[in-house]
Amino acid sequence: METWKKMGICFIMSVWMLSLASCGDDIVNYTMENTDEALCGKLWIDDSYVSDDGFPGTYQLRFFEEGDGQEITSWQVDGGTNTFDRNITWRWTDSSKECLQLTYPDGTSRYLENVWVRDHYLSAQISGRMVVFVDANYQH
Q: Which fold, 36-135?
């Protein structure tokens, strides 16, 4: 019986040692925080935009340093395209940098919540709908 106990302990220790030395990715310490540098200086395009009247189109955002920006919506209508282009100001709502407030010239605001900015993608929840923008310069 003593031999079986020793073998069991050796087996458990072997499994434990193998788990410590197993192949796999090392834990990398990096943050997934959004930055102004990743957000600004790009044209972000959402090709799945649908107008209030149900017409397909595009929704574009540009963010510039110092809080200025541009919003362009365009959609197809009979015989042409409607385009609405307006300047915005933007700011992160808090230090977590997960919510953007867009403010329009008339003083109204829109919020982009649960924002994630990556190299070529910007995702956010806008009015309860998840939207994914692609950097216009990204060729995939």
A: Lipocalin (2.40.128)
